[in-house]
Amino acid sequence: MKVFITGINGYIGGTIANLFISKGYEVSGLVRRPELVTPLAAMGIKPIVGNIDNAPVLSSAAANADAVIHTASHVDPYSIEVLLNTLKGTGKTLIHTSGSSILGKKEYGAASGFIYTEDHPIAPRIERIAWTGINNHVLQAATTSIRTIVIIPTMVYGRGSGLHKESIQLPLIWKIAKEKGQGIYVEQGESIWSNVHVTDLAELYLKALENAPAGSAYYAENGEASFKEIAAAMSAKLGVNQTLSLSMDEAIRIFGPDMAHYGLASNSRASSQKARQLLGWQPSINGIFDHIKNEISEA
Q: In this structure, are residues 118 and 218 in contact, taking their beta carbons and an 8 Å threshold?
């Protein structure tokens, strides 16, 4: 089977590609930077020079594949529309990657006890309307003879097996923790995010491609932690006992408003029971604190 992956040189896309190649799939992917063509080809990937803004290239690559996995952007409606128009009526598979910050509110680090399942409707804040709108649009496109699937990762961690090895949230927090000399969190720091190791996440894409019905969505998680717990683990790695609370204003100055509110001070708790029961997904790594202790970049 031929699988076309956008974001092929990215953290999630590259790890998916490496797994799929090991399982015998023929994998192609868009490459924006010419210098990445050779290393991607060495991994067994067929590089296609272009980007998601180049509609003819994107459409041609999707048309020539049996399935498309979109990891390059979860908020770009133009590339999604190109993919849906290209695949309409073909019965082919399109797996779209979203993000679980759609579950967040402006909570300033306060904890929430609510855990989302796929059956619970999301009432997103204005900052996440586009994200959920695209998810719903992709799922509804199942009525046009496309096998559409949405995967919603929670906080992804672990060493990637593609060209890009690191995620977003933890390295950002670690960078500031090193600058401050101690683990940091925003405001109360009690807010909780579910998390998933990138290797397990890639396995979920494989299970979804093999088994998921059209028009289905899945949360990806295998554990959870509060930001205060993450800060304490980073302090321990730095050899200190204390942690530091950043005010929201300071967090916005450092990380920008979106990351400060929705990536670091919101709750994003989800259950992956649906993926486990219906797809047979069996995540095996529950080790975010081991990752912080032993693997997070020292750069």
A: yes
Q: Which among 123, 291, 96, 285 has a CA at the least distance from the CA of 209?
A: 96
Alpha carbons 127 and 2: distance in angstroms, whole number: 36
Please write the tens of the pLDDT for every residue from 39-95: 999 999 999 999 999 999 999 999 999 999 999 998 999 999 999 999 999 999 999
Domain ranges (residues) in the chain: 2-107+115-160+196-221+271-280
Closest CA to 200 of 11, 15, 4: 15
Choose among 263, 268, 98, 101: nearest CA to 193: 268
The CATH number fitting domain 2-107+115-160+196-221+271-280, selected from 2.60.120.480, 3.40.50.720, 2.60.120.10, 3.40.630.30: 3.40.50.720
Q: pTM of the entire structure?
A: 0.96
